[in-house]
C-alpha cells in the first residue's frame, strides 16, 4: 500500500501570505496535499484552482478545504487576519487578530493529536501562545514562523558584503519577530570561524546592518503594501521539515522553559514540532533576549 501523502492546511490561504505559502509548498516538488481554507470561500476556491494548475508540474496537489478538514491535517498553518499598515508595529495587530485566531482554532473542532500548528499571523509570538492555549496541544506541537524570515534577511545582507553564499553564513536573528529582534552575533560563524573575526566585516557598521534587517518588513510594506513571497518560502521550508521529520535547525517561535514564554530561538524542527537547543549568547545578547521575553510575556498576560 502506498504511504499516505502528508496534508497541510493553510488557513487564511485566500490572502497574500497564505497563497504564497501554498504555492511555495507546491513549487518545492515533494508529495503533499495542500488545503486552502479561508473565511472567504470564493477566494479560497480561486487560489486553490490557480495553485492546482501549477501543481500539474509538481509532485503535490492543492484543493480548497474546510476548517474541520484543517483540524485533521498533519501541519496546520495559520495566516488569517489583519496585516500591518505602513509604519505600524506588528504588536499593534493583537487587538485585531486575537479573536480571529481564537475562533479559527475553535472552528476546527477536535484537532488531530499529532498535528503541528504553525502560526504565521502577526504578532506571531503572542498568537502562537494563544493558539497553544486554545487548542490544548502540547507546547512543542504549536510553533510560530518566528525570526526565520528575519534570519534569511540577515544572511542575505551579510552575503552581499562578504561575497559568501547566504547558506554558508551561520547567523540568525532572535527574540521577537518584531521590533525586539536582535542579531545573535556571538553565535554566528563562517566556515567554523566566528563571524565577527572575518576580515570583510572589519569596516561594516553591524548595528546599521542589524537595524536594516529588523526594518525590512516596514520597507517592503511602505513600497508594496505587504510582504508575502519571502515568508511564503520560509514557512514552506518549516512545514517540510515537520512533514519529513527532517530535524532542521531553524530560528522559530518555540516555547522556552527558561523564560516561560514563546520566543524565537534556534530549534530542532521535526514531526513532533520543535525542541530547543543550548544557547551561547554574550551577556548583552542575553539581556536582549530577556527583554524580548518580557515584552512578549506582558502582551500575552493581557489575553
Ligand atoms: N510571521 C511572518 O513572518 C509574517 C506574517 N505576516 C502576517 O500574515 C497575516 C496575513 O497577511 P496577508 O496574507 O498579507 O493578509 P491578507 O489580507 O492578504 O489575507 C488575510 C486572509 O485572512 C482571511 N481571514 C480573515 N479572517 C479569517 C477567519 N476568521 N478565518 C479564515 N480566514 C480569515 C481573509 O479572508 C484573507 O484571505 C498578517 O497578520 C501579517 O502581518 C505577514 C508577513 C510575514
Ligand atoms: C510582515 C512581516 O512580519 C515581515 O515581513 O517580516
TrEMBL record:
A molecular-function term among this protein's GO annotations: L-lactate dehydrogenase (NAD+) activity
Keyword Iron-sulfur in annotation: no
Extent of the signal sequence: none
Binding site for NAD(+): 12-18, 38, 97, 120-122
Residue stretches making up the Lactate/malate dehydrogenase C-terminal domain: 147-299
Active site: 177
Gene3D superfamilies: Lactate dehydrogenase/glycoside hydrolase, family 4, C-terminal (3.90.110.10), NAD(P)-binding Rossmann-like Domain (3.40.50.720)
The organism's place on the tree of life at top rank: Eukaryota
GO biological process: lactate metabolic process
Keyword tags: NAD, Oxidoreductase
Domain Lactate/malate dehydrogenase N-terminal: residue ranges: 7-144
Pfam families in the record: Ldh_1_C, Ldh_1_N
Annotated InterPro entries: L-lactate/malate_DH, Lactate/malate_DH_C, Lactate/malate_DH_N, Lactate_DH/Glyco_Ohase_4_C, NAD(P)-bd_dom_sf
Family: Belongs to the LDH/MDH superfamily.
Designated name of the protein: L-lactate dehydrogenase A
